[in-house]
Amino acid sequence: GLNEELVLRVGSRLNRGLSDSQIEEFTRLIDRDEEFVHAWLESNAGQYQDDPIYRHFASLGLARAEIEAEAAATIWLRSNCPDYRGIVQQTVREFYAECIQRLNGSDDPQ
0.70 exceeded by the pTM? Predict the structure, then answer.
């Protein structure tokens, strides 16, 4: 569906410029490998429970493993893809424009 296509496009753009080991590390984080996530936080994020990102996910009432997985992925992105928010926003704008063009009967993106 549309959401899957958007996720694929964002992921593809975020992967540009990353090493294979960075991609592998992020994949393990988003796949929620609990042992790996916890160990990654311990060795890469210091006092991660004090990080505003961690506190945000904790405030949502998620299970500890979910909080850690979401926080780890977000902290990883902040460190390894500092412009990830801009990349996501740009990709979403382009995707929406493409969808609108197709709905209006034009397959020629401008």
Answer: yes
